[in-house]
Design brief:
Radius of gyration: 17 Å
Number of helices: 6
Strand content: 25-35%
Shape: elongated
Number of strands: 7
Helix content: 25-40%
Order of helices and strands: EHEHEEHEEHEHH
Amino acid sequence: MEKLKILLASSSPYRRNLLEKLGIAFEWASPNVDETPLLKESPSQLAHRLAETKARHFASKFPNHLIIGSDQVVSFNDLTLGKPHTRANATAQLKSFCNQEVTFVTGLCLLNPAVNRAQICVESYKVKFRRLTDTQIENYLIREKPYDCAGSFKAEGLGISLFDRLEGDDPNTLIGLPLIALTRMLINEGIDPLD
C-alpha cells in the first residue's frame, strides 16, 4: 500500500517550521477561510471549527493526502482574540496582558479524505505575562513585528522574554501546532515519524 502524502493546510511559516521537526515530507497550501468567530462561539469551539474547516477546504483537491488543519486563538478575560494585524492592536493586546494569565487555544485536525475520517483535538496552553513597561512593549514590537501571531508574540523568538511562566502539555501548542497530538494522529493513519 502506498504511503499517504501529507498536506499542511496553513499559510503560517511557524507551523511549517514546527512540522519540519517531525522529519516527514509534506506539502503546504494556504486555505482561504473566514476566521470570524460565530455568535457565542467559545475559543475552543472556534479553534475546533477553524482547524477542521481548513483541513476540509482541500479535501476534494487532495483526496489522497492526509490534510493537517490547525488554528489558534487567544482566550483572555472572556474574550476571544486573534491576530493583531496592526502595531496599535498588538500594543493594546500586550498592554492588557501585563501581569495576567492568558490561554492559547489551538485546534488540530488530521483529515483523511479518502475515507472521510477526521481526528480532531483542541489543546490549551497557559501563559503568565510578566509586568512590562511601555518601552519594553515598544522595543519588542520593533524587533519581532508579531502582527500575524495570535497574542502578538512569537514564543519561538524574543517573545519568550515576555513571560513569567508557561503551563501546558506540549510547548509546540503555544506556537500553533501540537506535535505530540499530531504524532499520535499520524500513527493512527499508519505514519510514524520514527519509522
